[in-house]
Design goal:
By secondary structure, this protein is of the alpha+beta class. The chain has 28 helices and 24 strands.
Length: 781
């Protein structure tokens, strides 16, 4: 190991020790800790809920949660940066952190060691502070540790990781990394109690003379090296930094299979894996129960969806090119006179919108390189000229070059000295020798007054590009000025600004807005229109992660239910990897409505699902088939192996039903395990019996009826009814009353085939009805 690398290793230990001493002074100043986290840029995790569903800024804080909120960032350099920002903020007398290798990462969605206020015991926070003080003295008591372990959302792994942060020589984290190390050294993993934990520490100390932080580091390093995925050693990193060679995911995939096999459910996992692979890799290593991991995964999926990086749509028979790519739609807007106006605009569809979000050309042309705090700032929308005409582009470029914004309203009138709307109206009337008394809502006066008097220095201005895009963001820095230009009338009302972001290609409204923009030149943006979280993201500088080239993904559910040729149109060719933007054979087309040049970005994944019971793979449009990779998902009865109802394994019921369907129909019409998944959540026999009856009566029987076109005899074969006693058959087709002879004359009864059936509702609650499905050799009585 080089001296340089030795100097970089374990620099976090003295920093954490100094931080621990500093934290002791804030036991009674917990709100100050929250403010400090906010000041250094910790996002998310600072809102409490004193009442269900009502977020408010958290007012309590313990030392463990404080550090966990710093350790939640999945990117290593981001964690180092946020810690060093804290060190600078609080002027901690310690060297900056240079490494965090081997230090456990907190779970981003579950960093707190205490629950929300509406379910938090008043002794919870004091208990955590008491444990913290004991950790620093190496005097943890069994009572304190075990009591902290009982706090909701504070598991054994999380607790041992946190005490390790503050005393890494005395305590060892028990997580996935160290559990593997313990197993390799023939040391049993501890049970979740202080008594067993301390015994494990004693065994580790006897096994190795190395300090616990060294063991944690080596366990992490061993886990990195032992990963099955290919590795490359970074030439720019220390000899300890091993980076995964990214595994390339197919750009176009379709999950196909019978209904109930978890296709849509699976898309959540695949979407997060494609869009945020670093987080996914970390999530995959979380030492948590499956249900808790699923909750975290879904939260991440929802977060990425809210940021516009994942989109979801469902194809159906009425879905068209105009819904998917672009089409002309009527739009109702408020005009300058506050009256409703109908216009017919080219509206982008969901595919074009996410392509715009993913497009690597949507990058900054110029602007500030500093992050901007938007808290408390008013935000305005402003149009700079008609973007469909050359004049509009000239005005926009003039504003960028001269660091100001211009208002077209007001013509060549100088409104200097007009301090309110009334004075603006008076100035206009006296200059133009007209009266506006009959037009109290005159938009000229409103626009000029807002531009000159209402907008304040520090306010933010979003420059729109039509009603569905925006192209720049500015911060107002100066007061109103009139540009006395002899060669131009109009666009002479000006305000000095600092351009924060200017984009080469306008960004779609979905990147920032909750709905389309109005045609009004200037107006204040309410929170119902603009998403402040998205704006904050746009105005945040990511030093270690480029804002471009981020993966995006669109999920197309039931892709086979739509008319592929009609929906994709000419774009089907552009889906091929080499035909995408920057591909080896990149192509672009001119869209029919907007006349814009369009190509599919190379960082957009397309993930479809198709139900083979609706349409088999052989019937799918060949143009689609050859551009997608297909992943088959089949029923997996083994997922239900722990479930028994009426003492009959549900997995065996599903397996034999599917075997019979495959013989009578085909594999595409089998039944997925998800149809029975609700049984997994029930505990009592009575609840499971009731739910199984509900599943068969309302889901399985109707599905079989659809599969076999109401051929009730074959449906009975699938359920093995011929082998059962009459009372145990789900479908009864024999001995129905009244009989045929009582309904028809003797002369025709021999010619009639009785096609009647009756669903036996009593069978849904009979144990033998389900046991008989499995046993093919039963003989009917």
């Amino acid at each position: 190991m080089s001296n340089q690398n030795q100097q970089k290793q374990f620099t976090w230990i003295p920093a954490f020790a100094a931080l621990a001493k500093w934290l002791l002074e804030y036991k009674d100043r917990q709100e100050d800790l929250v403010d400090i986290l906010d000041d250094i840029g910790v996002e998310n995790g600072l809102n409490d809920r004193i009442k269900k569903g009502e977020p408010e800024k958290v007012k309590v804080m313990d030392p463990f949660t404080f550090v966990s909120l710093l350790m939640k960032y999945q990117n290593l350099q981001n964690r180092i940066n946020i810690f060093n920002r804290l060190i600078a903020k609080i002027e901690l007398n310690v060297q900056a952190i240079k490494d965090l290798d081997g230090v456990p990462t907190a779970q981003a969605q579950s960093a707190w060691l205490f629950p929300y206020g509406f379910e938090r015991d008043p002794d919870t926070i004091p208990l955590l502070w008491e444990l913290f003080e004991q950790v620093l003295k190496s005097e943890i008591t069994s009572e304190t540790f075990n009591s902290a372990l009982k706090i909701k959302h504070t598991g054994f792994t999380k607790l041992t990781q946190n005490i390790f942060y503050f005393n890494p020589s005395r305590y060892l984290p028990i997580d996935k990394q160290t559990r593997d190390w313990l197993a390799e050294n023939n040391i049993d993993n501890p049970k979740e109690s202080w008594e067993d934990y301390i015994k494990t520490l004693e065994r580790v100390a006897k096994n190795s003379s190395k300090p616990f932080y060294q063991i944690s580091y080596e366990a992490w390093l061993s886990n990195q090296k032992g990963n099955d995925s290919p590795k490359i050693v970074s030439s720019k990193a220390s000899e300890y930094t091993i980076k995964d060679e990214p595994i390339s995911q197919p750009l176009n995939r379709i999950l196909y299979g019978p209904p109930g096999t978890g296709k849509t459910y699976r898309t959540t996992k695949l979407a997060v894996e494609c869009v945020d692979p670093a987080w996914y890799a970390s999530w995959h290593s979380f030492d948590l129960p499956d249900d808790e991991k699923r909750i975290l995964l879904k939260q991440k999926y929802d977060e990425l969806t809210s940021k516009g990086r994942i989109a979801f749509t469902t194809f159906h028979q009425s879905f068209a090119y105009e819904d998917f790519i672009e089409g002309i739609r009527p739009t109702v807007n408020k005009g300058p006179d506050n009256q409703s106006m109908i216009s017919y605009d080219v509206i982008p569809g969901i595919f074009k919108s996410i392509c715009s979000l993913a497009d690597t050309n949507a990058k900054e042309r110029t602007g500030s390189t500093q992050s901007v705090n938007i808290d408390g700032k008013k935000i305005w929308k402003l149009s700079l000229g008609n973007t469909l005409e050359d004049e509009g582009e000239d005005i926009f470029n003039e504003c960028i070059e001269n660091n100001y914004i211009l208002l077209g309203w007001g013509e060549d009138i100088n409104f200097t000295g007009c301090e309110n709307r009334k004075q603006v109206v008076s100035k206009f009337e006296s200059t133009r020798n007209i009266s506006l008394s009959d037009d109290p809502y005159n938009y000229l006066a409103t626009a000029v007054n807002s531009f000159k008097n209402v907008i304040k220095a520090g306010d933010l201005v979003i420059i729109s590009d039509g009603n569905h895009k925006f192209r720049a963001i500015a911060e107002v820095t100066g007061n109103y000025e009139f540009l006395d230009l002899p060669d131009r009338i109009g666009y002479q009302q000006s305000r000095k600004v600092k351009w924060l972001r200017v984009y080469e290609t306008s960004l779609p409204k979905e990147k920032l807005f909750e709905k389309s923009l109005s045609q009004m030149t200037l107006y204040n943006l309410k929170d119902s229109t603009i998403n402040r979280d998205k704006l904050k993201e746009l105005l945040t500088v990511h030093s270690t992660e480029s804002s471009v080239n981020k993966p995006h993904l669109i999920i197309i559910d039931e892709i086979n239910r739509g008319n592929i040729s009609r929906i994709f149109g000419e774009l089907i060719t552009l889906l091929e990897p080499d035909k995408r933007k920057d591909g080896s054979d990149a192509r672009e087309i001119t869209l029919p409505y907007s006349k814009e040049k369009f190509s599919v970005p190379s960082n957009l994944y397309v993930l479809g699902t198709m139900n083979t019971a609706d349409k088999s793979l052989a019937q799918i449009d060949f143009a689609l088939r050859r551009r997608f990779e297909f992943i088959e998902l089949l029923p997996e009865p083994s997922h239900l192996k722990e479930v028994k109802v009426h003492n009959v394994p549900v997995s065996e019921i599903l397996e034999v039903i599917n075997q019979r369907i495959e013989v009578l129909l085909d594999r595409e019409h089998t039944i997925g395990h998800a149809y029975f998944w609700s049984l997994m959540e029930l505990q009592s026999d009575e609840e499971r019996e009731e739910e199984l009856a509900n599943i068969f009566e309302n889901r399985i029987i109707p599905l079989l009826q659809e599969y076999f076109f109401s051929d009730w005899e074959r449906i009975g074969w699938v359920l093995n009814d011929p082998a059962k006693d009459s009372n145990d058959r789900f479908i009864q087709v024999d001995n129905l009353t009244p009989d045929v002879k009582s309904l028809f004359h003797d002369s025709v009864t021999d010619q009639i085939m009785d096609r009647r059936y009756r669903i036996n509702n009593e069978a849904f609650n009979r144990a033998k009805a389900y046991a008989g499905i499995v046993s093919a050799d039963l003989q009917a009585e």
